[in-house]
Amino acid sequence: MPTILVIDDESAIRGALRDILEYEKYIVDEAANGTEALELVKNNAYDAILCDIKMPGMDGLEVLQKVMEITETPVVMISGHGTIDTAVEAIKKGAFDYIAKPLDLNRLLVTLRNALDKGNLVQETRKLKRKVLGAYEMVGESAPMMAMRAMIDRVAPTDARVLITGPNGTGKELVARNLHDQSNRAKFPFVEVNCAAIPSELIESQLFGHEKGSFTSAIKQRKGDFEQAHGGTLFLDEIGDMSLSAQAKVLRALQENRITRVGGEKDIPVDVRVIAATNKNLREEIGRGNFREDLYHRLSVILIPVPPLKDRKEDIPLLANHFMNESCQSMGRPVLPFSTEAIEAMQQLEWTGNIRELRNVVERLAILCDKEIMAKDIDRYAMPV
Fold it and tell me: N or C: which end of the chain has fewer CB within 10 A?
């Protein structure tokens, strides 16, 4: 049940509000002055606060200001001596709403419900932000990871194009996300294109868009990923699998900062930072005639190689515990600890699937084990059946 703090120097009003709110199934705390209220706010979590404005000592507007420094709990101001100026000042200082005395019961309850809805929305937004940021957290303290972090910190604030290389499952997308999140483009879109997953005949439409009627299934105009990423970052994952014709158009877009939709004639200016990634050796692909050398040089202003897990096995304890916390939290289960022997057993494995394989194994352990993870559990569940 929601908990409400009522702040008013008049005991009769506090009592009346308590009776009303408890009848509506709220839990109620009371404070007779600002000092008492602030002490309660520091030590308790409230879903909403009702605060009188005219109080001896610290008045309601001062209480509001101090509450806003402590918590994001919505505050509804109430006063029997209110004016329009007072109401405006209260809202400017961060109050959710202002209600004049004598209190209209229906308005009070509606305002309170709206304040609670806002508080719930703020909490959900905070949880989602934590979840999103956690999803792109780079875990590890090994020398290769520290060197890569230093490179990201140095390169991210620039608009330099970056080519990320490394085997499958090492976390190349994670590097791209961190480059975007630490850049001046962080408030603009991050658009990811998996070049290996899109058929070659559709990749140009995906990247550059198309005009209505430009081909059989083009029933309406579509903006491509270059346009959708305008102002932000376009991440071309597995670019080594892109067709040569699409490579030529990407090269033109990088040279001229403009694209043309499939079936269109109009040049459209675009402002994007391009980050590319591949698990292939592009120099070898150039030698085979599968990749344009001029595009390679356009993309590889900065090269960031992502180390395979076998080169950073000292990070396995941190990664294993991170993935275990993540898995158990999502399932609503207690976190299972790893024994020293289990960690040592994990560090002996090859991990050809890199971070992705480790994450899958830890999730498997979280589901199939009930207590501390032992070395025998690693032997049993770490290798695919």
Answer: C
Q: Which of 292, 307, 322 is the last residue of a domain?
A: 307
Q: Which of 2, 15, 56 is nearest to 34 (CA)?
A: 56
Q: Could you tell me the two tokens for 311?
A: 């080169």
SS3 40: helix
- DSSP H/E element including 340: helix 340-347
Q: Are 299 and 163 in contact (CB under 8 A)?
A: yes
Separation CA 29–CA 39 (nearest Å)? 12
Nearest Cα to Cα of residue 206 among 93, 15, 197, 40: 197
Count up the domains in the chain and report the number.
Answer: 3
pTM of the model: 0.66
The answer to whether 158 and 274 have CB atoms below 8 angstroms apart is no
The closest of 32, 70, 71 to 51, measured between CA atoms, is 32
Element holding 87 (H helix, E strand): helix 84-92
73 neighbors 46 (Cβ within 8 angstroms): yes
Phi and psi dihedrals of 77, rounded to 5? -90, 140
- Inform me whether the pLDDT recorded for 28 exceeds 90: yes
**30 lies in some domain:** yes
The helix/strand/coil state of 277 is strand
- Tell me which residue range forms the domain holding 77: 3-133
The backbone torsions φ and ψ at residue 27, rounded to the nearest 5 degrees and listed phi first, read -90, 135
CATH, residue 95 = 3.40.50.2300
Model confidence pLDDT, tens digit, residues 100-137: 888 888 889 999 999 998 888 877 766 565 555 455 78
CA atoms lying within 13 Å on the CB side of residue 233: 28
Same domain, 205 and 250: yes
User: In this predicted model, what pLDDT tens digit does every residue of 335-372 receive, in sequence order?
Assistant: 999 999 999 999 999 999 999 999 999 999 999 998 89
Question: Tokens 């004049």 identify what position?
Answer: 100
The separation between CA 13 and the C-alpha centre of its own chain, rounded to angstroms, equals 44
Q: What is the DSSP secondary-structure string of 105-146?
A: HHHHHHHHHHHHHHHHHHHHHHHHHHHHHHHT-----SHHHH
Residue among 339, 331, 342, 340 nearest 366 (CA): 331
Q: Reduced to 3 states, what is the DSSP secondary structure of residue 323? A: helix
Residues 126 and 182 grouped into a single domain: no
Side chain identity at 244, as an amino acid letter? L
Query: Are 4 and 112 in contact, with CB atoms under 8 Å apart?
Result: yes
